[in-house]
Model the fold of this input.
Amino acid sequence: MKAISPNLEGSKDIRGRLLRDLRISVTDRCNFRCRYCMPREVFGEDYAFLPHEALLTFEEITRLARVFARLGVHKLRLTGGEPLLRRDLETLVQMLRGIPGIDDIAMTTNGSLLTEQRAKSLQKAGLTRISVSLDALNDDIFMTMNDVHFPASRVLTAISAAQAAGLTPVKVNMVVKRGINDSQVVPMAEHFRHSGQILRFIEYMDVGNSNGWCMDDVLPAEEILSTVHRQWPLQPLFPRTPGEVATRYAYVDGGGEIGVIASVTRPFCAGCTRARLTCEGQLYTCLFGNQGHNLRECLRRGDSDEQLYEFIAQIWGNRADRYSELRLAHTPNSQTKIEMSRIGG
Ligand code: SAM
Ligand code: SF4
Ligand code: SF4
Done:
């Protein structure tokens, strides 16, 4: 087999955006039923999740990650569904960390299965960072949102476990939905100030077709920031890396930093360097995509690394996605989009 040398200049799409990050969903299953992601009316008892053989194996994921690394990807993020439901995730992390060019392996989790021991074994395997999702401190609100009666205190324990294991700085993702958990913006900010953990407010997005999204439910970043700023003045920080999705702010009094991910009101498509791999091996070049590219088929019919490289390079080279910019311009979109639990956020 012919060896493929790395693409040192990186792969650019037709808008000049480099391919830098790959999000890998390892399962479409989840033990939560967050109203904004997997509402139980849609993801109920008889919902047909993928059978195990449909999922990419760890070997298949690693092989693809290697090809992506040659195309310029240096950061991987494991997600889902709930990634910690996939058995033996440490083995996958170990396999990924040996890939030349990959210098960051992160994970996003709801924290429900993240014990201290699990955090340590993931760190030992090579995980570098972790983001834990938590939408409220108040249990009534949090349980209404996760819809499985899961208490906030157990997610807080998971966050501490991640911190103790050195998966730092731990980021805490809070999706803000107007009228549902906006009352939690200040308590969450207060809790995570001075903790070393970075709270990130995420605007509620119209991902997939199941969550009944409407603009009135979105609490715009501007409102979130002014609410926090009134209590504890904030000042903007410069982005650490190009294409960073969260806009960062520091508390003027030294309480640490927060971020806002304002993909609805301040789209960042122009700097979007991310590809997404679903658990069954579909490649999407946008979170709001309606058409994936079947890499599993390429793998299972025996394509060589070179063929995979060419195929992915061509897909990225033709990429023109800018869904959030178009949404802001009120361009209607009635296409069927992939669900968040399958693409992984
Ligand atoms: N289950 C894991 C978790 O919840 O962290 C990982 C997968 S989840 C799909 C990834 C992230 O997407 C979470 O932080 C979640 O809060 C966020 N998310 C899900 N649906 C969303 C929506 N409609 N708008 C904004 N963020 C959303
Ligand atoms: Fe599960 Fe994460 Fe979706 Fe909530 S946001 S339902 S935890 S995948
Ligand atoms: Fe990237 Fe698509 Fe989100 Fe724009 S809408 S930032 S192209 S994922």
